Amino acid sequence: MTVIQTLPWQCALAIVALFPLAPIPCSYRLEVPARAKVGFPREYQPGAVETRFQAGLSLWVVHDGRRIYALRAVCPQEGCRPNWLEIQKQFQCPCCGSAFRKDGVKLRGPAPHALERMAITLARDGQLEVDRGRTFRKESGQWDDPASYVPAERGGSRR
Predict the structure, then answer these.
(1) Is this prediction's pTM over 0.85?
(2) Does the 35-154 domain belong in CATH 3.40.50.1980?
(3) How many Å apart are CA 32 and CA 66, to the nearest integer?
């Protein structure tokens, strides 16, 4: 009988082999806040899509000339993050190929609906504040809800 065949060694090998399957608590998880300030309305140019919050907050801020709104940077098909293509003036999902207009409306692809908008307001200090926990869907007629946009007249750039 070899050393490996003894019961204590077999138990030790089983523990070492199964240890990677045990959950290891991670105390370094980064939580993204539900509410986030994204700057002053005057910082956004009419007709522009601001992509600087795409990675950290999973959102884009869009100023269409009349309204400023926040689009959720998640494709409704597979949950991937679409890319803003400035030349084509559209969002394109790298996973499923769905394309969306600047306002979030679906142009083509398998995505079941338009991109979602997030609640946006003017905070007391005059900055735009996005509530990522509250979303609005076009197909449900929710894009006309005043909480889904800030009128550009309330401080948006008119350059």
Answers:
(1) no
(2) no
(3) 29
